[in-house]
Amino acid sequence: MLESQSKWIFTYNESNAGNLQELADLNVSPIIKQILLKRGMDTAEKADQFLQPELNQLHATTAFSDIDKGVNRVKKAIEDGESILVYGDYDADGVTSTTLMVEALRESGAMCDYYIPNRFTEGYGPNKEAFREAHRQGSK
């Protein structure tokens, strides 16, 4: 097992104890209430919006610059039967988002695969050699 190279310093903010009262009516464990407070959800309303999200809370996709170009390119790749490669990440949210993207693309009719780099041999961030290899194998 790898030894941590970091010294973890845990901070406990006792001033949040008063805010726990705001979350008293939530039907969650005390530790979940503390996590919610740490993440800025210091009212029952904010906590409920986080715990019971609705679609209207999502960011408008139109706010992303050039999103239409990306959507059109993916649609064209699906229509033309091109191979799509989802370049993922190896942490928990990276694997989860890679899985969701691959499933969504496949349900849309895409010929799709994924690549998750090795953190130890390929490091962090995009890897030029991985992109070159994917292109050699037919991904555009």
UniProtKB/TrEMBL annotation:
Known Pfam families for this protein?
Answer: DHH (PF01368)
Sorted keywords for this record are:
Exonuclease, Hydrolase, Nuclease
Has the keyword Hydrolase been applied to this entry?
yes
- Transmembrane portions of the chain: none
GO molecular function list: exonuclease activity
User: Do you know which PANTHER family this protein is assigned to?
Assistant: SINGLE-STRANDED-DNA-SPECIFIC EXONUCLEASE RECJ
Q: What is this protein called?
A: Single-stranded-DNA-specific exonuclease RecJ
- Source organism: Gracilibacillus boraciitolerans JCM 21714
